[in-house]
Amino acid sequence: MAILFLKVFMQRFLDGEDLAGCESIRNPVPAVGRMIALTSLSLEHLAASFIIDASHFFAIDPSWEWPNLTSLVLTCRLLKLEDDSTKIDALLQAAAAAALKMPRLETMEIWNGRKGLAALFQYRMIRGSRQARILWRGTWKHPIRPSVLQAWEAVGNLHAIWRLDVVQEQVDKAAIQSHGDALHHLMLSGQAIRSVSLQQIQREQKFLEGVEVVS
């Protein structure tokens, strides 16, 4: 799983490597995002965090389809308070356009996290009903505008959804000290990262901060 990047960075620090000139967050390459999108066409689940950007993944060929994909988890650097909100809206509309190519999709999550910032957009079908939910959970509120809602209503129509709810939830900015904290407070689905890996990331972050961790 692409969350591995976080683990590699932490391990290099703990091994004593000089990371002064190393970016704490990788700059995703568009070609890699396109390659992973192409190779994921036959998958049922895909979770890729930080190694690619959702904006690159959704810049797809119109002929591409994901007939088996049920869950998709991606990160996107556009999900930040200081960015132009219209860029976020464009991303969410592009995500909906891609979701129209995913007839079995049950959950899509796009998130971002770093110290002081956490954001999650989630589309989730509610099992056993003809209902779905759009959720924005983050350290700030981002309104789901009519153009975005209309795009996701089209996805709901594809899945024979009768009702699409929109939910806003706020996360305490002070509680987000690392990517691991963001993952914890955003409460992503289990496909994003195993609980054991999340706990290890949080423990390593506390170690770097000089905080004693009690098992």
From TrEMBL:
Pfam families (alphabetical): DUF6546
Listed InterPro entries: DUF6546
Record-annotated DUF6546 domain positions: 20-193
Name by which UniProt lists this protein: Oxoglutarate iron-dependent oxygenase
